[in-house]
Amino acid sequence: MGGLQGGANSINRETLLALHPDAIISWNTDASSGLAAYLFQSSHIATINVNLESIDDLARAYRFLGELLDKKERTEPLALYAQEVTRQTRALVERRVSKRPVVYYAEGTDGLASECDSSSHYEAIKVAGGINPHLCQPSGGKGMEKVTLEQVILYNPDVIIAQEKEFVQNVQNDPRWRFVAAVQNKRVYLVPKKPFNWIDRPPSFMRLLGLQWLTHVLYDEPNASEFETRMQEFYRLFLRIDLNQTQHQAILN
């Protein structure tokens, strides 16, 4: 059917109408675009916009949808989980405030795109206590601000969180990056993406697991064994999947 996410405008009006939906539930950012507003209004389909600008909006969104769809028995455990994970994460960061690492968010296959400190794309890392060295004003909502290698060397981050596998595979052997502390100390981590991205793009409920993965790689809290347990709990609660050891390793690798 296509979509409107991430700036895409591929949704097909005829296909949408053929589905005869009773209503459209839309993330408010997507619904605010002119094309989305025109499409939904001209289709005469009731549209419900849900505020999901922040990780903190997830619990409220689950409760709202539970009321709307009469599925509170399903959504309330998800809302409680979201509240507890964000609370625990902030409490952990407060305990570790003197040890918060500088975290460079490397995007693109060359690692030379990143996010400004105020960007929603960096939110999960920020909530997990990462200090963003790339202080700037976002040039647009899509992010991925261009960065030079010289800037990264000056930032000298303790940790690099990377979106692309190609970058992670190549950076340790790239002499241009050898002076960066995160590379020297082998603290370059690839964001897991199964079933989809844990941090961003899209910024979904998977960030609740992403927060726990981030504190695991940044502070070893939870440790590897405890994180495996939490990961299994998350997949069981949100995705109704019982992970085995092989699946667990495949997701993280």
Pick out its properties.
253 residues, mainly alpha, three-stranded parallel beta sheet, two-stranded parallel sheet, 46% helix
Uncertain parts: none
β-strand percent reads 5-15%
Class by alpha and beta content = mainly alpha
Shape: globular
In CATH terms, what is the architecture of the largest domain? Answer: 3-Layer(aba) Sandwich
Rg on CA atoms, Å? 20 Å
Query: First CA to last CA: what distance?
Result: 31 Å
Widest sheet, order of strands: 3-6-7
Q: What is the highest CATH level, the class of the largest domain?
A: Alpha Beta
Could you give a short account of the major beta sheet? 3 strands, parallel
- The overall number of domains is 2
What is the CATH topology descriptor of the largest domain? Rossmann fold
Order of helices and strands: HEHHEHHEEHEHEHHEHHH
If helices are DSSP runs of H or I spanning 4 or more residues, what is the number of helices? Answer: 12
The overall average pLDDT, rounded, is: 90
Helix content: 40-55%
Could you state the CATH homologous superfamily of the largest domain? Nitrogenase molybdenum iron protein domain
Total strand segments = 7
